[in-house]
Structures are given as structure tokens and as C-alpha cells.
Amino acid sequence: MLRKLFIRILLLGAVVAFSVFLFSSGKGHTLLLDNKTATMGGHEHAAVSAVTVTVDSLKPVKILPGERDLVVVKGVHHRITVSGAGVTVEKRFELPFEDMFLCSMPALLDGDDAWFEAKRPEAPKAADDSNKEEVPVAGEILPL
Prior knowledge:
Number of strands: 10
Order of helices and strands: HEEEEEEEEEHE
CATH architecture of the domain at 27-118: Sandwich
Largest sheet: 4 strands, mixed
Structural class: alpha+beta
Strand order of the largest sheet: 6-1-9-10
Distance between the termini: 75 Å
CATH topology of the domain at 27-118: Immunoglobulin-like
Mean pLDDT: 82
């Protein structure tokens, strides 16, 4: 009886470990590839004339100064190659458990270690409701 309990606990642990592995390896991340003047890691990095960015084996993306592009990747381990301003930089990196990251191409080309940071999507701003009339909701008691 103790042996059966031990085997069941062991199998349950294996299923949980396999589930965690599948979840982390299949998780999608959004990378915002940014070619704007930015301050990252306490240093200001000026936008580069034009860069070509390749993430993993995806199609290369050309980003002009002041522009931002979006790439969706899966998994934790990635490789990015950035070519621009006569310099080519290839870097391997791991993404933490966040959904969206802002990646500064000028900071990466300048060799700054703080070239990417987690970014939370901004909530849409509420419109100014001061000039709108209230519309009664069904079942609402209206004042006389």
C-alpha cells in the first residue's frame, strides 16, 4: 500500500513538472523592437539611421529611426542579430515570465546590458464624460 502511494506521488510530480515545462516552452512573448532615442540603464542612446533586426529564425525586420516594430516569439531562450551603423551585434538572451518587452536597438548596438525591459500594456484612457448625459439603464429607478 505504501508502495502504491509512493508511485502515485511520483507520477503526479512528473506530470506537474512536465506541465510546467510545456507551459514555459510554449509561452508567447511580444518584443517591441524600438529604434528611438532612449534612456536605458542610466545612459541615453541616440536612434540609429536604420537597423535590420533578426530574432531567432524569423524574417528580418528593417526599422528606420523613430520607428518601432513588433515581433512575437515563443519560449524562453532567444537570439537577436542587429545590423546598423556599420556594426553587427548578435546576442543570446532569456526572457523572464512577462508578456511584453521593449527592446532598444540603439542601446544594444552601444553594448548596454540594459537593452531590454519588461513593459506592461497601457490601459486605454477614458474619454471625458463630463459633457455626456446619463442614459437610464433598464430596471433603474429614475428621479421625478
